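Example (one chain per record):
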Amino acid sequence: MAFGFFKKKNEHTLPGKVTTDKEALFCYGFDASSAEGIPSAVVSPLNTQEVSDVAAYAFKHDVPIVPRGAGSGMTGGSVPMNEAVVLSLEGMNRIIEIDEKNMVASVEPGVINFHLQEKLEDVGLFYPPDPASMKFCTLGGNVAENAGGPRAVKYGVTKDYVLGLETVLPDGRVLMTGGKTYKGVVGYDLTRLLVGSEGTLGIITKIFLKVLPLPEETVTMLCTYKTLDAAAQTVSRITSSSVIPRALEFMDNESIRAVENYGSFGLPADAEALLLIEVDGPRAAVIEEAEKIAAMCKALDGNVSIAEDVFSKQRIWDARRAISPALYRIRPTKINEDIVVPRGRIPEMLKALREIADKKDLIIANFGHAGDGNIHVNVMTDKDDEGEYRKARESVRDIFEAALKLGGTISGEHGIGLTKKQYMGMELSDVSIEIMKKIKNVFDPKGILNPGKMFPSDTYK
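Predicted structure:
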């Protein structure tokens, strides 16, 4: 039934924007996780009305649909299940307005995060959320997953910048929440509810984002350590000091060596750990803060170097953003988790991760946003090696248990999607999950929008 409808719509109102070609369908059947699925069709609307038309028909005829941006998610959130139709929002990629006077950017969901960053910098403005995939991930996907990034330690995550949303509900109705004002407390905060809902409540078609003045100065530092513990202790000292860095990133030796083998960025492969630290703000204040942080690093035997120019800064950040693909040089399969612990407990968490790796005889590479306690834990394995892959899968529960024991959470920015939903009950109570399911039912009573995601009762292997 879905095929016939979408082909008919293609002929009359959506020319060139519907496909059932097998090769094209395959391209929309996976994301950056291990999850896979083949959609029954891909529809690429170009405006809100077309999204509404597709949703209304899908609702009437019980056709499951999955909203999708760039497919860069890490937990299978945009992977189609049960031959669902993928609603690709890549074509809705206009920056509608940059309102310099009111410091608000209005965008469509298919706008690439980095493209907005560039346009804003041209007029002296700044959008802080900067996920590692910023050069290809979409803002709609960022909103759906409540994406973070290195700058979250100082500036917060996506939810802290979303002022309002235009969202198409599963039955085709259009819902407006919030707007261009920085305040608003009329009724429930539906905007915050939709942010991070992973495409299970509505299809985002317009986003209003708060933006900031571009910082006057940024100083980028690289600090290397002979021991993992010294790096972890430095993080604790910095985060409990009066200085709030713009970014405080961590890499262990496995990550450093993987990146150097991948691209020869000039990182010291013999270092047990390194910290990538940035401070920004007024020039005089930034220099003073950089000196304070450098002193804290050196007090724990850190070797500090400062990037002298834009090229050096970019090279350091290119190395950081290359970690995820570089890790595949270690083993062909990566299980990527993004736990968070209270910042002062990072040393304990890293110790626990070493113990899990030793106990399971696995390679576990760690990096991430140490400034806000967010560690990206990468269990490197080979899914074709049955015994090793089983141990790797088993280690995930051990990792989550360790994080929860330290007062943490099993996901800081990747979401739940398909790959984490079986663990959701480890952190949330039955009451919490029941309330969430009831909210889902209010928005999507037929359960056709991004089905099979998030809730642990839905099976995933």
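Caption: The chain has 16 helices and 18 strands.
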